[in-house]
Amino acid sequence: YALVDTGSVDPANPGATAADERGSRAVSSVFEPGSTSKVITMAALLEEGFATPTSRYIAPDSWTNSAGETFTDAHDHEDWALTLTGVLARSSNTGTIRAGSPLSLDQRYDYLQAFGFGERTDVGLPGESRGIMRTPDQWFGRTQDAVLFGQGVAVTAVQQTQVFATIANGGVRVSPTVVAGLQNEERVFQPRVVEEPVQVVSEQTADQLMSMLESVVTDGTGAKAEIPAYRVAGKTGTAQAAGPSGEMTEIVASFVGIAPADDPRIVVSVFMFNPQTSIWGGDVAAPVFRDVATHTLHTLQVAPSSGERQAYPLTWE
């Protein structure tokens, strides 16, 4: 439906914008996806049979791997007794690593690739990046565990949106596009050719993920994304991006959400570079999602949600 960048080119005066800034950053700028990417780890665990939404874990405040690399959660806390759903809802890095430990390095890579990381979406805009994703033989020390919670890889906004669209679509990845087609020299309309849909995970896995992502909004870090009368599923994120020097000096706060969660019609993604009031996606990006998604649902005349959802427990103590 829409792809919007702040500071966009004025179509009536494109020369007023520098040539290297006339493209869409949604397809050209890359950044670590951060916690919004945890949903891929959850998908892999469910699909491979290593876990269920109620599997139990202890998520410590910090954890050190065999390479001596230490990982921490965003805030200090006592050990949390969390289900897999709770790990996602509370966005625990250490819990995600512990839950994801049964996944081999190849499996971690394969699922990231299956959801579209490391390749262009071919959305139909110039200057699209494929992102940055090294192969497992290049994952050293920190990276092999960091990829489980969205570090050690870099994606575009459209790539990350595609992940949630795949879940909303019953596990089927469909190529995004902003171009319906083109007219040839004879002014005959020719529909744009896109890739065939790909079944990334089963419909059952996608359904379980949807319920888990609802818990992020109802009981987790995404509370500010709630929309009256509509069920919402989504994930918050705070990540890093390269600054002008090439060093990871910038912050990206994000929220990617699906609505209505019981009958998905839209996916709305908000990525905010260097927000001023807070670095947390749940604080600054989720409210923008709420406003944009509310307007879109009303414009499309989408009926409010009905019925009860299957809510998984977040803790097991």
Please describe what this structure looks like.
With 317 residues, the chain is of the alpha+beta class. It is built from 9 helices and 11 strands. The chain has helices spanning 25-28, 38-47, 84-89, 93-100, 105-114, 143-146, 157-168, 203-219, 281-299, and strands at 56-59, 62-64, 70-72, 80-83, 172-173, 181-183, 189-191, 198-199, 233-241, 250-259, 266-273. The strands form 5 sheets. Strands 9-10-11 form a 3-stranded antiparallel sheet, with helices on both faces. Strands 1-4 form a two-stranded antiparallel sheet. It has a two-stranded antiparallel ribbon with strand order 2-3. Helix 2 packs across helix 5 (105-114). The longest helix is centred in the last third of the chain and has 19 residues, at 281-299.
